[in-house]
Design goal:
Length: 273
């Protein structure tokens, strides 16, 4: 009788272990365009692997290590960005829509284009700042490309980032004045971390300009974007949320296979700048 009970317990334990393993095992199926992006693992999961060469470093040494790490990426064409954004920026509450960055509106994935009421591809690091346009590389890097309403995108234009200004149609709380743009509160940190990513990823190689963050708001076509002090504050005040973390993960898993290190480690902004 004892042997029978022991056998049953062992069988039950083995069955439970198998069930847990099945739940934990990653799916090998391709991620459909309308699927909810996977939850991001804790950044610590990457500290001993992806970020191992950055461990213990600060300042220029940390920036140089991160540049080397994140420069290992798959590059997309500008046309491919359309479909990628439909997955990276999918509305968690509506699989048929995307969330627009500055306005916060949810808009149908099929409404992408260049007409009034459409959403288009916003370069958060304005493509004229360094004159890289839509070239494969900085011009197509998903870590700073986001869906935005055509008219709102035009309001932002190529302005630098700073606090202050006035609202506008479909602003969602974003503000603008003659020489700067302030995103809505919910994405200020997102914008800052995208800017710091670009300044780390593109350091003058591959035929592109050396992108840098500075303290100005009138940088024109120079390869700079400011204000660094404001962007650092935004990074601190608006830490990464679930949407931003999922976005980072799906870019890593499905498209570029590199990460925005400042989403995984927002404190690295202060360690470098």
């Amino acid at each position: 009788m004892l042997a029978t009970r022991t056998g049953r317990r062992r069988a039950a334990a083995l069955a439970a272990t198998a069930a847990l393993a099945a739940l934990a095992a990653p799916s090998l199926a391709a991620t459909p365009a309308t699927a909810t992006p996977p939850a991001a693992p804790a950044p610590a999961d990457y500290d001993d692997t992806y970020y191992k060469d950055a461990a213990g470093k600060t300042g220029d040494d940390l920036k140089a290590s991160l540049h080397t790490i994140i420069s290992d990426q798959t590059k997309l064409s500008y046309d491919a960005v359309w479909d990628a954004l439909k997955t990276t920026d999918q509305d968690p509450a509506d699989s048929g829509s995307v969330i627009l960055l500055y306005s916060g509106l949810s808009r149908s994935k099929s409404s992408n284009g260049g007409d009034s009421g459409d959403w288009n591809r916003e370069h958060v690091w304005a493509k004229s700042h360094g004159d890289f346009g839509t070239a494969t590389g900085p011009g197509t890097d998903l870590h700073h490309l986001r869906p935005e309403d055509v008219a709102v995108n035009a309001v932002r234009g190529n302005k630098d980032f700073d606090d202050g200004g006035s609202g506008f149609t479909d602003s969602g709380g974003s503000l603008t004045d003659a020489d700067s743009f302030e995103p809505r509160d919910a994405v200020k940190g997102d914008v800052a971390r995208m800017i710091f990513y670009m300044a780390t990823r593109y350091e003058g190689g591959e035929g592109f300009a050396d992108l840098e963050v500075n303290g100005s708001v009138d940088n024109g076509s120079n390869p700079y974007i400011g204000k660094v002090s404001v962007l650092k504050t935004w990074n601190d005040e608006d830490p990464p949320d679930a949407f931003e973390e999922r976005r980072n993960q799906v870019i890593y898993d499905t498209y570029q296979h590199n990460r925005n290190p400042f989403v995984d480690h927002p404190e690295w902004v202060g360690a470098i700048w």
